[in-house]
Design a protein that fits this description.
Number of strands: 0
Radius of gyration: 25 Å
Order of helices and strands: HHHH
Strand content: under 5%
């Protein structure tokens, strides 16, 4: 994202745009599965489908919100630059640069926020089985 914020009007597609896009794809691909695994780690097996659906839905919603916020920042910056007499191409480029810079800042802050808010799991004591549950009489099934 930081590399994309430096793209100019005369930047070539390769390497100025293609390389940052490839890095974004690689980073997203390498992070989604570990994050999903961490999120699903303590979910009971019976609730795994529902939890996975909630996690994937929240991922999609948060992505949509991020795109909406960055798009709003970009269009507002473009509109402001146009109002101040900057040319259309330069104003649009200024809006995109702001959005990519804010996105890069958010990506840089995310690991710090995660480290600050991660709760270390505590060791759970294994519950002792109830003696009545393990006795032979508790498995009695009446005949018809």
């Amino acid at each position: 994202m930081a590399l994309l914020s430096g793209v100019g009007a005369r930047s070539a597609y390769f390497p100025d745009i293609a390389v940052p896009f490839a890095l974004v794809r690689i980073g997203a691909g390498l992070s989604f599965m570990p994050l999903l695994t961490i999120a699903m780690a303590d979910v009971p097996r019976a609730d795994a489908g529902m939890a996975s659906g909630i996690i994937n839905t929240s991922l999609q919603v948060s992505t949509a919100i991020g795109v909406a916020v960055l798009g709003t920042l970009s269009s507002d910056r473009t509109r402001t630059l146009l109002h101040h007499g900057v040319g259309e191409a330069a104003a649009l480029l200024g809006g995109y640069r702001l959005a990519f810079a804010v996105g890069a800042g958010c990506l840089a802050a995310a690991p710090l926020a995660a480290l600050a808010w991660i709760v270390r799991p505590t060791r759970r004591k294994t519950p002792t089985p109830c003696p009545a549950a393990s006795s032979p009489s508790s498995s009695y099934v009446p005949s018809r």
